[in-house]
Amino acid sequence: MDKMKFETPDGNAANVARIEELFPAAVSEGKVNFEMLRTLLGDEIYGDEAYEFTWVGKREAVREAGRPVRKTLRPCPEESKEWDTTENLYIEGDNLDVLKLLQESYLGKVKMIYIDPPYNTGSDFVYRDKFAVSREEYEDEAGVYDDEGDRLFKNTETNGRFHSDWCSMIYPRLVLARNLLHGDGVIFISIDDNEVDNLRKCCNEVFGESNFVAQLIWQRAFSPKNDARFVSNSHDYVAMYARNLNAFKIGRLPRTEEANARYSNPDNDPRGVWMSSDISVKTYNPNTDYPITAPSGRVIEPPTGRCWSLSKNEFLERLQDNRIWFGPDGNGTPRIKRFLSDLKFDGMAPTSIMMFKDVGHSQEGSQEVTKLLEAGVFDGPKPVRLLRRLLTLANLGQDDIVLDFFSGSATTAHAVMQLNAEDGGRRKFIMAQLPEICAEGTEAAKAGFATICEIGKERIRRAGDKILAEWKAKRAQAPMTNEWGGVFAKCRLTSAFAF
User: What is the pLDDT of residues 229-272, one digit of tens each?
Assistant: First the structure.
């Protein structure tokens, strides 16, 4: 039998091996000769000055991503549901260690990652990943720690490394997360104004600026706060990066009645309702700069500094096919007709602004948890509808894996189960969460929850039971359909693990 491994792979050694494969002369006895590497690369290196993003502690954060850990997962079947059949995972522990432990089994297999990390507002907790000081020093400096590693501290703005500590926390986790993403995978990261700039810079380094998809804006509040000092902030951001932008294909949204209502048929075209769009473009091309004669006889030139988007032959073909509209009096600027029948199967392109009426608001997220767990036990949970929108944009297949390593109240798991119930999918989730203590006197502690992990696991159990009950009720009404056929795979709820 093969010997069991008691240590995760050494990522730094793997990087050296990759360099040796490309440049054997630059590696000797497992060490990189950087002078030789510079010589081999020639002019393709930075000079004395270069655009770069750095902070105090960056080198240590980069090294941390590659360091192995000597830990393993301990199964907890007594806390699980459908232990023998489930493929969903809930892991208690430091997410940096969890990400390292997942590298071998899930390398390149995760289609979507969503995380809601600490926003670094000056009052929340940030993970500390440095092991060079003693437990006593941690206790003196931090004051807040878990039972095994003293991994949390309150990062106030008076800290001289306020932003640096946050960057050092998020950077290695992003590096490890990227390794887990499938070639056409995507990551979504919730954040607010406090660290959005630094997050974008970290992501540009880790994922590559060319793989940036969008910075989505979520309208999390539905009414202004009149006690705001300057401006009532009503939004958060969701940064979206692809593993490989050329391989990623975004999911499109279902068409809405509101969108369809914009189409009409003023000329009774037999192909149905349509709407018109401009055929001029900013990029000038003399080959598409020509006059067009309207049915009224008026000669129309392209707007100043613009030209038509169609060549003359292309324009005449569409004119012959009755796809050019000159307005009801035949005297308007030409526009091209786009028929709803040509679009209905493609869905709608998503927009960068996600309004609360479409994806929910922060109070909706709180109400969902309160109703399910019968107490207001978690601050600021994201609404299920927001995660459902992100799952759609990720363009998930029926068997894909979704990871959330800042699991919190487990909204992501709830949304994955709900999606499976809706379309019969067999998607799996992996949730990871540090067992942060619920402070004495909080609603969570009063409700009997000792840690955030207990909240997340109980939500998954209750949400799964609720969704299954709804599925059974629907099946009783329509027993011959298999619309929710994948719900059983989804309702094999979760295997719980801890360090």
Answer: 899 999 999 999 999 999 999 999 988 888 889 999 999 999 99
Cα separation of 146 and 33, whole Å? Answer: 41
Domain ranges of the chain: 11-51, 74-251+357-498, 257-342
Q: Does domain 74-251+357-498 have CATH number 3.40.50.150?
A: yes
Give the pLDDT confidence of 51-70 residue by residue, as tens digits.
889 999 999 999 999 999 88
Q: Which of 190-204, 279-293, 332-346 has the lowest mean pLDDT?
A: 332-346
